[in-house]
Design brief:
This protein is mostly helical and 112 residues long. It is built from four helices and no strands. The chain starts with 12 loop residues before the first helix and ends with a helix. The N terminus is likely disordered.
Length: 112
Amino acid sequence: MRLNWDFSLLSTPLPWLRLSIIGSAYYETYAASTALECVGETLQINGYSVDGWVAAAWVMTIGGSACVLWSSLAIKPISMIYEQAEKVDMKLVLSIGSGCLAGVMAYFYSWR
């Protein structure tokens, strides 16, 4: 059975719901494309079945949940290290944080 929706590639509600909470458009597209390739379909409008859509949704959900799990497990140790560093030298902590932010911004700016 082929989907005959007039929506964009993954329909409208699924990407909107997922990307408003966690995820990125690049990851969602890559995960959906990979899942659809595994079931022998392609990511295009009206180009996949209900089974393909379900496979893509599962791959995106499982992959996205890894970030949430990692964050949940790592937040306490990272917070403890941050608190210890704050006690030693707050200016150093702020300098490192500012440098990291500037580095990320410079990296993304270099893509232009």
